[in-house]
Amino acid sequence: MIYCVEDDDSIRELMLYTLRASGFEGRGFSEAGEFWQALELARSGDGKMPRLVVLDIMLPGEDGISILQKLRSNPATAEVPVIMATARGTEYDKVKGLDLGADDYLAKPFGMMEMISRIKAVLRRSEPKQGEESLVFGGVEVNLSQHTVTVNGKPVEMPLKEFELLKLFMENPGMAFSRDKLLSRIWDTDYMGESRTVDVHISSLRTRLGEWGSAIKTVRSVGYRLEVPHA
């Protein structure tokens, strides 16, 4: 189920039509109140939780940035992938959305096939393949099939982008990744103006890992690498 939060009726209906024509289930909402009500019903079992949310920033009442913040701060929805829809040229909104944990963005006006392509790409990254095993270093364990992280045996809630960063580092211990490489691999973009987004997510990831966060080393003038003990 893909949730589309878009106040323009014609755009929202076109999005839903395209989703259904592409094999997805879709639900549309014109404002935040409808969205939160549907989400609460889905969490109680009276409906389907979203696999992904396409979220417009400019909405009547509560805007998309506020909705994103609430989604990421609630453990029940922290890992639901979100694609933000931003007006073309509004770089501040795009960067702020990525900093707050958005998984991708669409610049309006966007083509429907671009929307489908980005949805599929985010879903591929967020839904692990069956048969993958856990990754471990020190007291950190990442279960790829269950999409969970434990630190010293205790579960840690982790937004999708931080989970993907940790997975990439743990799959490639000792390898240095530049900021532009991380943007390309994790955010599927090569726009260097967003390099601050990488730093924000690395800082948050280190905090979530507690004592093991120091294993993510800053490589001066390059980027970051994971220094696994005794690797």
Condensed summary:
With 231 residues, the chain is of the alpha/beta class. Helices cover 40% and strands 21% of the residues.
Write the layout of secondary structure elements.
Blueprint: E1 2-5, H1 9-21, E2 26-29, H2 32-43, E3 52-56, H3 64-73, E4 82-87, H4 91-99, E5 104-108, H5 112-126, E6 134-137, E7 140-143, E8 148-151, E9 154-156, H6 160-171, E10 177-178, H7 179-186, H8 195-208, E11 216-219, E12 223-226
Parallel strand pairs: 1-2, 1-3, 3-4, 4-5
Antiparallel strand pairs: 6-7, 7-8, 8-9, 10-12, 11-12
Helix pairs in contact: 1-5, 4-8, 6-8
Describe this structure in words.
The strands form 3 sheets. A 5-stranded parallel β-sheet has the order 2-1-3-4-5, sandwiched between helices. Helix content is 40%, strand content 21%. The protein is an alpha/beta fold and 231 residues long.
- Radius of gyration, in angstroms, nearest whole number: 18 Å
The main sheet orders its strands as: 2-1-3-4-5
* Element-by-element helix/strand order: EHEHEHEHEHEEEEHEHHEE
Work out the helicity level: 40-55%
Q: What is the end-to-end distance?
A: 41 Å
Q: Helical element count?
A: 8
Q: Largest sheet, if any?
A: 5 strands, parallel
Pick out the low-confidence regions: none
Shape: globular
Annotation, overall tally of beta strands? 12
Q: Could you say which structural class the secondary elements and strand pairing correspond to?
A: alpha/beta
Mean pLDDT: 87
Strand content: 15-25%
